[in-house]
Design a protein that fits this description.
The structure is a homodimer of 529-residue chains.
Chain A (H helix, E strand, L loop, with lengths): L1 H12 L4 E2 L5 H4 L12 E2 L4 H14 L3 E4 L18 E4 L6 E5 L4 E4 L5 H10 L4 E2 L11 H6 L15 E7 L5 E3 L33 E8 L1 E2 L3 E9 L2 H16 L8 E4 H8 L4 H4 L6 H11 L4 E9 L1 H15 L5 E5 L1 H9 L1 H8 L3 H15 L33 E5 L2 E3 L2 H17 L7 E3 L5 E10 L4 H21 L11 H5 L4 H13 L13
Parallel strand pairs in A: 2-4, 3-4
Antiparallel strand pairs in A: 1-2, 5-6, 6-10, 7-11, 8-9, 8-10, 12-14, 12-15, 13-14, 13-18, 16-19, 17-19, 18-19
Helix pairs in contact in A: 1-3, 6-10, 14-15
């Protein structure tokens, strides 16, 4: 059966695009201590080939697992949910199908990376920004959107900024959502809902079809843009700062999500784990405090952006200053002009302001650039925190290839100081108990809640530490559920248990999947039973 | 079979809540020249009773048609898609289940009206605003959201401002979306997507379940708020004004949707149709121009709002002035203070500014109030335009009861002057040919498209005119489809034809419906085959 399927795939795609054996290496690389049996990977080059692929799979009852660029770090990378799934690598389908500079959108295929779109926009000389995720320049925009990922700054809720899909259904038919199924429709990429049931959500965090095209809204470069950085030097400032932040978000002062990074989250991006001193134990408070002092990292470090007309940006600056007065230890705004000054006079400013300007520039430029649509690897070094092999140049980072141990736990927390305190009271003892650093970022994905991203970094090559990481994840997930905090996204480490709950939601999700995919050929086990 | 079902409904709900015969009058009243046979209406008072209702209906194969307040004016009011459907009137379920003033949301049952929530917020003394639709104070908030309706001002995209649902499925089970299906979840009403496929969209514009609770995000009263009014006295200003408006929307200058009302749309809200002079013919250009001159109505009349801190509102005002300079004939901002001055010195200002202040105040106060969350009947008089019986006091308006002829055609248009011109070139000759006024409003529901609402007003009691209205609708809908413009919403006048198209989207929508509703008991024919 399987051999016949392979032969049919070879006929349909050409032998070069059907990989087996040693050629599968990269698809098995993962930052989780989990290994799936992957019998083959196939690389269709067009929608028609994807249609052939699902038909062959259905005929031979071979499960498929579609990936775009396979960089789902910390959630399973390229690995399928179940053993025996054939990887459908959509990386060859990497066209920017349409770019509309007037209405500020693009239509993308799955293989288009953040870097590629960034370069494309530059080449076309259109003043439009994408909103990058922290997963790095080589990550697929379409795939991150389907996982409902996010960035900071304008259009940071990626699913919110998605409009229109083309989907190959498990039966090989093509479904176009929104108005896309109507001939000659003009509003496919400018109005999300179309008419009748709004179906796009069904194809996010699911396996009901293979999305082969997606409309993505971009941000027209505003007249003025500044990044806003603020710091709380004591935990007592955190509550009032969160209340003030929520008010600012309600008033639309910030453009898009704002990040609050805990001290330790910043440290692990700047430092390497001191193996000699700690030997697998967590970073202790005294050492963390000393490092933070050296690097001028506060207990809480906020970053968001303001954009619009010159008047709007000035008003936003004034409003933020007024709202955060007394609630933060430091508040600074960064513009292109100020960055240029720092770049021109690094030494003088280092002395004058008692900061290490080159080091500051490195981290500031990256987060500043990310908010203006420049993808960056600034968030990737954290994956290398407990990697004993050392850390490559940032530009060359690939956490799965380099055998980094990384697992994300990402629950949603209502945006109140009380909810955050309750949440920390649950997770901090668990992290301590399992000897991992508690490096949280709270991202205000809307005005009412935080998406907390908590990375578990461990030594993937030390089986005991990997087992401890899995146990820690399990405990986090169970205790948080008891306290009412649930994750916005699942990975290989948690999928089966989560969807296996006795719960009408997962029953409905599974029955909708079976309607479109009666043979359960497509990504079996992914966000469904 | 049907009599047995009725008996079972009586046992479950009490005889008082099962209506037949003459008691059905209000459910058959409609602004369309279409009459459905309605055998009964039942009024469950709780979620448990709704569960019983769907189980009884399934057992006896009796189709149901749920309504909330039954005020879907111009799309079918309370009438079901198919003859023989029992109306499930959810009006008794009208609790505000939860009000969270810190995180600015409410959880509502289907029967909660705009007026009721407005009063509730006032009684509770919380400074939160809802976003009303133009359908009037007695319209259900939940139902308008399920139809993906909209208003102007903050949170104007009602489905965007919806978070979390409780749904009685056709099998009687209860599905809670987002995180709502998890015990003790804290983020059900603050994070839209939950984990796994995002299902809420499936339950909008559909008949897959009866939504019995919904989270609705409210707007915390901002420090400052102003309405912005602008006018174009010539069509040549329209294109540049649209381009400028799109730029302002991209920069987040306006809070929520902005309306562009054509002259004739404003006139029909202010005037009555001159039967003696026109006798069923459309308002001619000379008369419209004269009326517009008298009433000081421009060719295009824009309204939107700006809100936030005092600094932000000032900056928005400056930015709008700069962007619209030379592109509009008039630009004015209205605040509470200015309204108070107008109210205090109506005569002096009337003389000084050469306007009729009391008349101005009436229309300004309503649109200004709507944007600040005060529901109003300001948009309802248009339904009475060709009603020969005359017009009741605005407070007493009910277009279906008063036998107004009203039918909405509401296609989506990309936000470019060229697309709007193409669209008008299609519709204007059709409206002229059928002798109806072309009274469009363009609502910028997002930064990239307009929702064009075009009302067909006709004399419902004149069969020839009603037939002409139906023919006009058909032609609008067909010619617009050929030109690429499709409606965002369907009514009784268009549903069957639309969902009957040979189109994979409607096939998929129908098969998803059959999965949850194998007996096709719930709202058969509604946004599915």
């Amino acid at each position: 059966m399987f051999e016949e399927a392979l032969a049919a795939f070879r006929t349909a795609l050409g032998a070069d695009h059907v990989l087996t054996g040693d050629a599968l290496g990269r698809y098995g690389a993962d930052t989780l201590p989990i290994t799936r049996q992957i019998p083959a990977a196939i690389r269709p080059g067009s929608v028609e080939e994807v249609q052939q692929v699902v038909r062959i799979a259905a005929a031979h009852e071979v499960p498929l697992y579609p990936i775009s660029t396979g960089q789902n770090w910390g959630y399973g990378t390229s690995q399928p949910m179940r053993d025996g799934s054939v990887i459908v690598d959509l990386g060859r389908m990497n066209r920017v199908v349409e770019l509309n500079s007037e209405l500020a959108y693009v239509v993308l295929e799955p293989g288009v990376t953040q870097r590629q779109l960034f370069e494309h926009l530059r080449q076309q000389q259109v003043r439009l920004w994408l909103n990058p995720t922290g997963a790095g320049p080589d990550c697929s925009i379409l795939a991150n959107t389907l996982e409902r990922g996010f960035g900071i700054g304008p259009n940071g809720d990626h699913f919110m900024a998605q409009c229109g899909m083309e989907i190959v259904l498990p039966n090989g038919e093509i479904l176009r959502t929104g108005f896309g199924h109507y001939p000659g429709a003009r509003s496919t990429w400018v109005y999300k809902y179309g008419v009748g049931p709004y179906l796009d959500g069904l194809f996010t965090q699911s396996g009901l079809g293979i999305v082969t095209k997606m409309g993505v809204w971009l941000v027209p470069e505003p007249e003025a843009f500044e990044a806003c950085y603020f710091m709380c030097n004591s935990e007592s400032q955190f509550g009032p700062a969160v209340e003030a932040l929520r008010g600012l978000l309600f008033d639309g002062v910030f453009r898009g999500p704002v990040n609050l990074l805990h001290r330790d989250r910043v440290l692990i991006m700047l430092e390497r784990y001191p193996w000699d001193a700690l030997a697998g134990r967590q970073l202790d408070e005294a050492r963390a405090a000393r490092l933070a002092h050296e690097k001028k990292v506060a207990i809480w470090n906020g970053v968001g952006c303001i954009a619009g007309s010159r008047e709007q940006v000035r008003a936003a600056r004034q409003t933020i200053k007024r709202a955060l007065r007394g609630k933060v230890s430091k508040l600074a705004f960064l513009s292109e002009q100020r960055l240029a000054i720092l770049r021109t006079f690094p030494k003088a400013i280092s002395v004058l302001m008692n900061v290490n300007v080159p080091e500051l520039l490195h981290s500031l430029s990256s987060s500043y650039g990310m908010m203006r649509g420049t993808p960056s690897k600034v968030a990737l070094p954290l994956a290398y925190w407990r990697n004993r092999r050392g850390t490559p140049d940032t530009d060359d980072m690939n956490p799965a290839r380099d055998r980094c141990g990384l697992m994300w736990f990402a629950p949603i927390i209502p945006m109140t100081p009380r909810d955050v305190a309750d949440f920390r009271a649950v997770i901090e003892p668990i992290m301590r108990k399992h000897d991992f650093e508690c490096c949280i970022t709270l991202t205000a994905v809307n005005e009412r809640c935080f998406d907390c991203t908590l990375p578990l970094m461990y030594d993937l090559e030390n089986p005991a530490e990997a087992t401890r990481a899995m146990a820690c994840y399990r405990e986090l997930s169970e205790r948080c559920a008891e306290a009412g905090f649930y994750p916005y996204r699942l990975g290989l480490q948690s999928m089966e248990k989560e969807v296996g709950r006795d719960d009408i939601f997962w029953t409905v999700a599974t029955s909708l999947k079976r309607t479109l995919d009666p043979g359960n050929i497509l990504a079996p086990g992914r966000y469904a039973r």
